[in-house]
Amino acid sequence: MKNKTGSEPGFAEFITLTAVMMSLVALSIDTMLPALSAIGRDLGIIEDNTSQLIISIFFLGMASGQLLYGPVSDRTGRKPAIYLGYGLFIIGCILSLSATSFTLMLAGRFLQGFGTAGPRIVSIAIVRDRYEGSSMARVMSFVMTVFILVPIVAPAIGQEILLLSGWRTIFGTFLLLALLSLAWFAFRQPETLKEENRIPFSLKKITATVRTILKNRSALGYSITAGLVSGFFLGYLNSAQQIFQEEYAVAEHFPLYFAALALSIGGASFFNARLLPHHTMQSLSRRALQTICGMSASFLLLILLQEKHPPLWQLMLFLFLTFFSTGILFGNLNALAMETLGSMAGIGAGIAGSLSTFISLIAGTVIGQSYNGTVLPLTAGFLLLSVASLWMMHWAESMAERT
Question: Quick one: pLDDT at residue 274?
Fold first, then answer.
Protein backbone atom coordinates (compact mmCIF):
# COMPACT_ATOMS: atom_id res chain seq x y z
CA MET A 1 0.00 0.00 0.00
CA LYS A 2 3.00 2.28 0.10
CA ASN A 3 3.96 4.51 -2.77
CA LYS A 4 7.24 4.74 -4.57
CA THR A 5 8.81 6.99 -1.94
CA GLY A 6 7.99 4.55 0.87
CA SER A 7 5.69 7.04 2.59
CA GLU A 8 2.14 8.26 2.19
CA PRO A 9 0.54 11.70 2.40
CA GLY A 10 -0.56 12.98 5.79
CA PHE A 11 -4.05 14.30 6.48
CA ALA A 12 -3.40 17.83 5.15
CA GLU A 13 -1.53 16.64 2.06
CA PHE A 14 -4.19 14.02 1.33
CA ILE A 15 -6.94 16.65 1.45
CA THR A 16 -4.91 19.05 -0.71
CA LEU A 17 -4.00 16.40 -3.29
CA THR A 18 -7.60 15.18 -3.49
CA ALA A 19 -8.83 18.75 -3.88
CA VAL A 20 -6.27 19.50 -6.61
CA MET A 21 -7.30 16.46 -8.65
CA MET A 22 -10.98 17.22 -8.25
CA SER A 23 -10.32 20.88 -9.08
CA LEU A 24 -9.50 19.95 -12.67
CA VAL A 25 -13.28 19.95 -13.12
CA ALA A 26 -13.78 23.46 -11.73
CA LEU A 27 -10.68 24.75 -13.49
CA SER A 28 -11.87 23.38 -16.84
CA ILE A 29 -15.21 25.13 -16.39
CA ASP A 30 -14.61 28.43 -14.61
CA THR A 31 -11.42 29.47 -16.41
CA MET A 32 -13.37 29.23 -19.67
CA LEU A 33 -16.20 31.59 -18.68
CA PRO A 34 -14.59 34.92 -19.71
CA ALA A 35 -13.51 33.34 -23.02
CA LEU A 36 -16.87 31.94 -24.17
CA SER A 37 -17.80 34.90 -26.36
CA ALA A 38 -14.29 35.15 -27.85
CA ILE A 39 -14.20 31.43 -28.70
CA GLY A 40 -17.66 31.66 -30.25
CA ARG A 41 -16.64 34.60 -32.43
CA ASP A 42 -13.37 32.99 -33.55
CA LEU A 43 -15.07 29.71 -34.42
CA GLY A 44 -18.00 31.26 -36.29
CA ILE A 45 -20.78 31.17 -33.66
CA ILE A 46 -23.38 33.91 -34.02
CA GLU A 47 -25.99 33.07 -31.35
CA ASP A 48 -24.60 33.93 -27.89
CA ASN A 49 -26.43 31.13 -26.07
CA THR A 50 -24.74 28.57 -28.37
CA SER A 51 -21.37 29.30 -26.77
CA GLN A 52 -22.77 27.90 -23.52
CA LEU A 53 -22.38 24.45 -25.11
CA ILE A 54 -18.65 24.71 -24.36
CA ILE A 55 -19.66 24.29 -20.74
CA SER A 56 -22.57 21.88 -21.23
CA ILE A 57 -20.68 19.42 -23.46
CA PHE A 58 -17.98 19.18 -20.80
CA PHE A 59 -20.64 18.03 -18.33
CA LEU A 60 -21.96 15.52 -20.88
CA GLY A 61 -18.48 14.00 -21.17
CA MET A 62 -18.09 13.94 -17.40
CA ALA A 63 -21.47 12.25 -16.90
CA SER A 64 -20.62 9.59 -19.51
CA GLY A 65 -17.13 9.00 -18.12
CA GLN A 66 -18.33 8.39 -14.60
CA LEU A 67 -20.02 5.19 -15.76
CA LEU A 68 -16.60 3.81 -16.76
CA TYR A 69 -14.21 4.75 -13.97
CA GLY A 70 -16.12 3.20 -11.08
CA PRO A 71 -16.04 -0.37 -12.46
CA VAL A 72 -12.47 0.09 -13.72
CA SER A 73 -11.26 1.29 -10.33
CA ASP A 74 -13.04 -1.56 -8.54
CA ARG A 75 -11.31 -4.07 -10.83
CA THR A 76 -7.81 -2.68 -11.39
CA GLY A 77 -7.41 -0.41 -8.36
CA ARG A 78 -7.89 3.30 -7.92
CA LYS A 79 -4.61 4.49 -9.45
CA PRO A 80 -4.90 2.92 -12.95
CA ALA A 81 -8.40 4.40 -13.34
CA ILE A 82 -7.10 7.86 -12.49
CA TYR A 83 -4.21 7.45 -14.95
CA LEU A 84 -6.73 6.63 -17.69
CA GLY A 85 -8.75 9.74 -16.89
CA TYR A 86 -5.73 11.99 -16.98
CA GLY A 87 -4.68 10.57 -20.35
CA LEU A 88 -8.06 11.32 -21.95
CA PHE A 89 -8.14 14.79 -20.41
CA ILE A 90 -4.72 15.59 -21.87
CA ILE A 91 -5.83 14.43 -25.35
CA GLY A 92 -8.93 16.61 -25.05
CA CYS A 93 -6.83 19.64 -24.12
CA ILE A 94 -4.63 19.17 -27.18
CA LEU A 95 -7.71 18.83 -29.40
CA SER A 96 -9.33 22.03 -28.09
CA LEU A 97 -6.02 23.87 -28.19
CA SER A 98 -5.74 23.23 -31.92
CA ALA A 99 -9.47 23.50 -32.78
CA THR A 100 -10.32 25.30 -36.02
CA SER A 101 -14.09 24.71 -35.82
CA PHE A 102 -16.72 24.76 -33.10
CA THR A 103 -17.40 21.05 -33.69
CA LEU A 104 -13.75 20.20 -33.03
CA MET A 105 -13.81 22.40 -29.93
CA LEU A 106 -16.83 20.52 -28.59
CA ALA A 107 -15.14 17.17 -29.29
CA GLY A 108 -12.13 18.26 -27.27
CA ARG A 109 -14.34 19.53 -24.46
CA PHE A 110 -16.23 16.22 -24.38
CA LEU A 111 -12.94 14.35 -23.96
CA GLN A 112 -11.84 16.75 -21.24
CA GLY A 113 -15.08 16.11 -19.37
CA PHE A 114 -14.81 12.37 -19.95
CA GLY A 115 -11.24 12.45 -18.67
CA THR A 116 -11.80 14.57 -15.55
CA ALA A 117 -14.51 12.12 -14.47
CA GLY A 118 -11.65 9.78 -13.53
CA PRO A 119 -9.90 11.97 -10.92
CA ARG A 120 -13.24 13.34 -9.71
CA ILE A 121 -15.04 10.04 -9.13
CA VAL A 122 -12.13 7.84 -8.13
CA SER A 123 -10.90 10.48 -5.66
CA ILE A 124 -14.25 10.18 -3.87
CA ALA A 125 -13.81 6.40 -3.83
CA ILE A 126 -10.34 6.85 -2.31
CA VAL A 127 -11.85 9.04 0.41
CA ARG A 128 -14.52 6.37 0.96
CA ASP A 129 -11.79 3.70 1.21
CA ARG A 130 -10.22 5.60 4.09
CA TYR A 131 -13.22 7.20 5.85
CA GLU A 132 -16.95 6.70 6.38
CA GLY A 133 -20.03 8.42 7.81
CA SER A 134 -19.56 11.86 9.36
CA SER A 135 -15.77 11.50 9.08
CA MET A 136 -16.11 11.13 5.33
CA ALA A 137 -18.42 14.13 5.16
CA ARG A 138 -15.93 16.15 7.22
CA VAL A 139 -13.06 15.22 4.87
CA MET A 140 -15.20 16.05 1.84
CA SER A 141 -16.09 19.43 3.34
CA PHE A 142 -12.40 20.24 3.87
CA VAL A 143 -11.71 19.07 0.30
CA MET A 144 -14.45 21.36 -0.96
CA THR A 145 -12.96 24.25 1.04
CA VAL A 146 -9.62 23.86 -0.76
CA PHE A 147 -11.39 22.98 -4.01
CA ILE A 148 -13.39 26.22 -3.96
CA LEU A 149 -10.23 28.32 -4.23
CA VAL A 150 -10.17 27.40 -7.91
CA PRO A 151 -13.54 29.02 -8.82
CA ILE A 152 -12.48 32.11 -6.85
CA VAL A 153 -9.39 32.72 -8.98
CA ALA A 154 -10.09 30.75 -12.19
CA PRO A 155 -12.16 33.39 -14.07
CA ALA A 156 -9.54 36.05 -13.30
CA ILE A 157 -6.81 33.73 -14.59
CA GLY A 158 -8.84 32.98 -17.69
CA GLN A 159 -9.48 36.66 -18.39
CA GLU A 160 -5.83 37.57 -17.88
CA ILE A 161 -4.70 34.80 -20.24
CA LEU A 162 -7.35 35.91 -22.72
CA LEU A 163 -6.06 39.48 -22.70
CA LEU A 164 -2.37 38.56 -22.87
CA SER A 165 -2.23 35.67 -25.33
CA GLY A 166 -5.70 34.48 -26.37
CA TRP A 167 -8.02 31.66 -25.41
CA ARG A 168 -5.86 28.85 -26.82
CA THR A 169 -3.30 29.43 -24.07
CA ILE A 170 -5.98 28.57 -21.53
CA PHE A 171 -5.94 25.00 -22.79
CA GLY A 172 -2.15 25.00 -22.68
CA THR A 173 -2.42 25.93 -19.00
CA PHE A 174 -4.82 23.03 -18.40
CA LEU A 175 -2.32 20.71 -20.03
CA LEU A 176 0.57 21.85 -17.82
CA LEU A 177 -1.41 21.61 -14.59
CA ALA A 178 -2.69 18.16 -15.50
CA LEU A 179 0.87 16.88 -15.96
CA LEU A 180 2.04 18.38 -12.65
CA SER A 181 -0.87 17.03 -10.59
CA LEU A 182 -0.55 13.62 -12.26
CA ALA A 183 3.10 13.42 -11.19
CA TRP A 184 2.19 14.42 -7.62
CA PHE A 185 -0.49 11.73 -7.43
CA ALA A 186 1.73 9.03 -8.97
CA PHE A 187 4.58 9.53 -6.51
CA ARG A 188 2.72 10.39 -3.31
CA GLN A 189 -0.62 8.57 -3.19
CA PRO A 190 -0.55 4.82 -2.49
CA GLU A 191 -3.17 2.41 -3.78
CA THR A 192 -6.13 2.24 -1.34
CA LEU A 193 -8.02 -0.76 -2.74
CA LYS A 194 -6.46 -4.04 -1.63
CA GLU A 195 -6.24 -6.95 -4.06
CA GLU A 196 -8.69 -9.08 -2.08
CA ASN A 197 -11.34 -6.35 -2.21
CA ARG A 198 -11.30 -5.92 -5.98
CA ILE A 199 -14.32 -6.90 -8.06
CA PRO A 200 -13.79 -8.88 -11.32
CA PHE A 201 -14.64 -6.83 -14.40
CA SER A 202 -17.58 -8.69 -15.96
CA LEU A 203 -20.62 -7.16 -17.61
CA LYS A 204 -22.95 -9.51 -15.77
CA LYS A 205 -21.55 -8.63 -12.37
CA ILE A 206 -21.46 -4.92 -13.17
CA THR A 207 -25.10 -5.03 -14.24
CA ALA A 208 -26.00 -6.84 -11.02
CA THR A 209 -24.09 -4.27 -8.98
CA VAL A 210 -25.82 -1.41 -10.78
CA ARG A 211 -29.20 -2.98 -10.01
CA THR A 212 -28.22 -3.33 -6.37
CA ILE A 213 -27.24 0.33 -6.20
CA LEU A 214 -30.39 1.50 -7.96
CA LYS A 215 -32.45 -0.48 -5.46
CA ASN A 216 -30.64 1.27 -2.63
CA ARG A 217 -33.25 3.93 -1.91
CA SER A 218 -30.91 6.12 0.08
CA ALA A 219 -28.12 6.16 -2.53
CA LEU A 220 -30.57 6.67 -5.40
CA GLY A 221 -32.59 9.40 -3.71
CA TYR A 222 -29.61 11.43 -2.55
CA SER A 223 -27.92 11.08 -5.96
CA ILE A 224 -31.00 12.53 -7.66
CA THR A 225 -31.14 15.30 -5.05
CA ALA A 226 -27.48 16.12 -5.68
CA GLY A 227 -28.22 16.29 -9.41
CA LEU A 228 -31.10 18.71 -8.93
CA VAL A 229 -28.98 20.96 -6.71
CA SER A 230 -26.11 20.87 -9.21
CA GLY A 231 -28.65 21.62 -11.95
CA PHE A 232 -29.45 25.11 -10.77
CA PHE A 233 -25.76 25.74 -10.16
CA LEU A 234 -24.93 24.64 -13.73
CA GLY A 235 -27.69 26.95 -14.96
CA TYR A 236 -25.85 29.76 -13.22
CA LEU A 237 -22.50 28.73 -14.73
CA ASN A 238 -23.99 28.60 -18.23
CA SER A 239 -25.46 32.09 -18.04
CA ALA A 240 -23.14 33.90 -15.58
CA GLN A 241 -20.93 35.50 -18.23
CA GLN A 242 -23.94 36.85 -20.13
CA ILE A 243 -25.72 38.04 -17.00
CA PHE A 244 -22.76 39.93 -15.58
CA GLN A 245 -20.97 41.13 -18.71
CA GLU A 246 -23.97 41.79 -20.95
CA GLU A 247 -27.02 42.41 -18.77
CA TYR A 248 -25.18 44.27 -15.99
CA ALA A 249 -22.19 45.44 -18.07
CA VAL A 250 -19.51 44.79 -15.44
CA ALA A 251 -16.96 44.12 -18.23
CA GLU A 252 -13.52 43.14 -16.87
CA HIS A 253 -14.85 43.13 -13.30
CA PHE A 254 -16.79 39.91 -13.97
CA PRO A 255 -14.13 37.69 -12.27
CA LEU A 256 -14.46 39.75 -9.07
CA TYR A 257 -18.22 39.19 -8.84
CA PHE A 258 -17.78 35.52 -9.70
CA ALA A 259 -15.05 35.16 -7.05
CA ALA A 260 -17.23 36.72 -4.36
CA LEU A 261 -19.97 34.18 -5.04
CA ALA A 262 -17.50 31.29 -5.18
CA LEU A 263 -16.14 32.44 -1.81
CA SER A 264 -19.60 32.03 -0.29
CA ILE A 265 -19.64 28.35 -1.33
CA GLY A 266 -16.14 27.77 0.04
CA GLY A 267 -17.02 29.46 3.32
CA ALA A 268 -20.14 27.33 3.63
CA SER A 269 -18.16 24.12 3.07
CA PHE A 270 -15.77 25.06 5.87
CA PHE A 271 -18.72 26.06 8.08
CA ASN A 272 -20.37 22.71 7.31
CA ALA A 273 -17.29 20.81 8.49
CA ARG A 274 -17.54 22.63 11.82
CA LEU A 275 -21.26 21.88 12.20
CA LEU A 276 -21.14 18.16 11.37
CA PRO A 277 -19.99 16.98 14.81
CA HIS A 278 -23.15 18.57 16.29
CA HIS A 279 -25.78 18.08 13.55
CA THR A 280 -26.72 15.32 11.10
CA MET A 281 -26.04 15.64 7.39
CA GLN A 282 -29.76 15.25 6.75
CA SER A 283 -30.81 18.12 9.00
CA LEU A 284 -28.18 20.48 7.61
CA SER A 285 -29.15 19.64 4.02
CA ARG A 286 -32.85 20.05 4.69
CA ARG A 287 -32.41 23.47 6.27
CA ALA A 288 -30.16 24.61 3.42
CA LEU A 289 -32.76 23.59 0.81
CA GLN A 290 -35.56 25.28 2.73
CA THR A 291 -33.49 28.46 2.81
CA ILE A 292 -32.92 28.34 -0.95
CA CYS A 293 -36.63 27.78 -1.57
CA GLY A 294 -37.63 30.76 0.55
CA MET A 295 -35.05 33.13 -0.91
CA SER A 296 -35.79 32.09 -4.51
CA ALA A 297 -39.52 32.63 -4.10
CA SER A 298 -38.95 36.05 -2.53
CA PHE A 299 -36.45 37.15 -5.16
CA LEU A 300 -38.67 35.94 -8.00
CA LEU A 301 -41.45 38.16 -6.71
CA LEU A 302 -38.99 41.03 -6.38
CA ILE A 303 -37.89 40.57 -10.01
CA LEU A 304 -41.46 40.71 -11.26
CA LEU A 305 -42.10 43.88 -9.26
CA GLN A 306 -38.99 45.54 -10.77
CA GLU A 307 -39.71 44.80 -14.43
CA LYS A 308 -37.43 41.74 -14.49
CA HIS A 309 -34.26 43.76 -13.87
CA PRO A 310 -33.35 44.09 -10.17
CA PRO A 311 -30.32 46.20 -9.15
CA LEU A 312 -26.98 44.40 -9.20
CA TRP A 313 -26.57 44.60 -5.42
CA GLN A 314 -29.87 42.74 -4.92
CA LEU A 315 -28.82 40.01 -7.36
CA MET A 316 -25.46 39.63 -5.61
CA LEU A 317 -27.07 39.41 -2.17
CA PHE A 318 -29.54 36.77 -3.37
CA LEU A 319 -26.84 34.70 -5.09
CA PHE A 320 -24.40 35.01 -2.19
CA LEU A 321 -26.92 33.70 0.35
CA THR A 322 -28.19 31.03 -2.04
CA PHE A 323 -24.71 29.75 -2.84
CA PHE A 324 -23.80 29.70 0.85
CA SER A 325 -26.67 27.25 1.33
CA THR A 326 -25.55 25.37 -1.80
CA GLY A 327 -22.05 24.98 -0.33
CA ILE A 328 -23.54 23.20 2.67
CA LEU A 329 -25.39 20.83 0.34
CA PHE A 330 -22.52 19.73 -1.92
CA GLY A 331 -20.40 17.79 0.56
CA ASN A 332 -23.34 16.40 2.53
CA LEU A 333 -25.36 15.08 -0.40
CA ASN A 334 -22.35 13.32 -1.94
CA ALA A 335 -21.51 11.70 1.38
CA LEU A 336 -25.14 10.65 1.96
CA ALA A 337 -25.32 9.07 -1.50
CA MET A 338 -22.14 7.06 -0.82
CA GLU A 339 -22.71 6.20 2.85
CA THR A 340 -24.51 2.87 2.39
CA LEU A 341 -22.48 1.57 -0.57
CA GLY A 342 -19.63 0.03 1.42
CA SER A 343 -17.39 -2.18 -0.73
CA MET A 344 -19.08 -0.91 -3.90
CA ALA A 345 -17.49 2.53 -3.40
CA GLY A 346 -15.86 2.65 -6.84
CA ILE A 347 -18.80 1.70 -9.04
CA GLY A 348 -21.11 3.36 -6.52
CA ALA A 349 -19.34 6.68 -6.96
CA GLY A 350 -19.52 6.23 -10.72
CA ILE A 351 -23.23 5.43 -10.87
CA ALA A 352 -24.23 8.07 -8.32
CA GLY A 353 -22.00 10.69 -9.92
CA SER A 354 -23.13 9.90 -13.47
CA LEU A 355 -26.80 9.98 -12.53
CA SER A 356 -26.51 13.30 -10.69
CA THR A 357 -24.42 14.83 -13.50
CA PHE A 358 -26.88 13.79 -16.23
CA ILE A 359 -29.71 15.32 -14.21
CA SER A 360 -27.76 18.52 -13.63
CA LEU A 361 -26.78 18.65 -17.31
CA ILE A 362 -30.39 18.55 -18.48
CA ALA A 363 -31.65 21.02 -15.89
CA GLY A 364 -28.69 23.40 -16.19
CA THR A 365 -28.77 23.43 -19.99
CA VAL A 366 -32.49 24.22 -20.01
CA ILE A 367 -31.91 27.12 -17.60
CA GLY A 368 -28.94 28.42 -19.58
CA GLN A 369 -30.62 28.17 -22.97
CA SER A 370 -33.66 29.97 -21.54
CA TYR A 371 -31.58 33.07 -20.84
CA ASN A 372 -33.46 36.04 -22.32
CA GLY A 373 -31.48 39.03 -21.12
CA THR A 374 -32.95 38.86 -17.59
CA VAL A 375 -32.32 36.84 -14.42
CA LEU A 376 -35.90 35.55 -14.43
CA PRO A 377 -35.12 32.10 -15.96
CA LEU A 378 -32.24 31.58 -13.53
CA THR A 379 -34.28 32.48 -10.45
CA ALA A 380 -37.26 30.40 -11.56
CA GLY A 381 -34.88 27.48 -12.08
CA PHE A 382 -33.50 27.89 -8.57
CA LEU A 383 -37.01 27.81 -7.11
CA LEU A 384 -38.33 24.84 -9.08
CA LEU A 385 -35.24 22.68 -8.58
CA SER A 386 -34.90 23.45 -4.87
CA VAL A 387 -38.55 22.48 -4.32
CA ALA A 388 -37.97 19.26 -6.27
CA SER A 389 -34.80 18.61 -4.23
CA LEU A 390 -36.70 18.93 -0.96
CA TRP A 391 -39.32 16.48 -2.16
CA MET A 392 -36.70 13.99 -3.37
CA MET A 393 -34.75 14.21 -0.13
CA HIS A 394 -37.95 13.54 1.82
CA TRP A 395 -38.61 10.55 -0.44
CA ALA A 396 -35.10 9.17 0.12
CA GLU A 397 -35.36 9.50 3.89
CA SER A 398 -38.88 8.04 4.16
CA MET A 399 -37.99 5.07 1.98
CA ALA A 400 -34.77 4.52 3.96
CA GLU A 401 -36.81 4.38 7.18
CA ARG A 402 -39.00 1.63 5.76
CA THR A 403 -36.06 -0.59 4.71
Answer: 79
Quick check: 219 pLDDT over 50? yes
Q: According to the per-residue pLDDT averaged within each range, which of 57-61, 131-135, 351-355 is highest? A: 57-61
Check residue 5 and give its pLDDT. Answer: 47
Rounded Cα distance between 98 and 42, Å, is 13
Give the integer Cα–Cα distance in Å for 22 and 127: 12
Which of 268, 260, 364, 265 minimizes the C-alpha distance to 316?
260
Q: Which of 278, 337, 205, 240 lies closest to 34 in space, CA to CA?
A: 240
Given a contact cutoff of 8 angstroms between Cβ atoms, the answer to whether 386 and 289 are in contact is: yes
Fold adopted by 11-188+200-402:
Growth Hormone; Chain: A; (1.20.1250)
Question: Which residues contact residue 342 at a Cβ distance below 8 angstroms, ignoring those fewer than 6 apart?
Answer: none
Nearest Cα to 285, choosing from 132, 151, 140?
140
SS3 readout for 135-170: HHHHHHHHHHHHHCHHHHHHHHHHHHHHHHHCCHHH
- pLDDT at residue 30 above 60? yes
Domain locations in the chain?
11-188+200-402
Q: Tell me the Cα Rg of the chain.
A: 20
- Rounded to an integer, what distance in angstroms lies between the CA atom of residue 23 and that of residue 156? 16
